[in-house]
Amino acid sequence: MAIRVRIITPGGQVVAQISLLNGVMPGVIAIEHGYGHREMGATQHSLDGVPMPYDHKSGQA
Description:
There is one protein chain. By secondary structure, the protein is mostly beta strands. Helix content is 0%, strand content 30%. The protein contains no helices and four strands. The protein has strands at 3-9, 12-18, 46-47, 50-51. Strands 1-2 form a two-stranded antiparallel ribbon. It has a two-stranded antiparallel sheet with strand order 3-4. Strand 3 (46-47) and strand 4 form a beta hairpin. The radius of gyration is 16 Å and the shape is extended.
């Protein structure tokens, strides 16, 4: 059974499908995010045209 909720923040809102999991404390949400990739590793990302820093040692954004 799919459970859909509306998440509202000062920056906007989104409707998302949720899963209830043991290990996430009551009152807390964990949101999966990803930027996609074409191959293993990560590249530097930008938000609103501003490059976001990344860890040079691990190569992770």
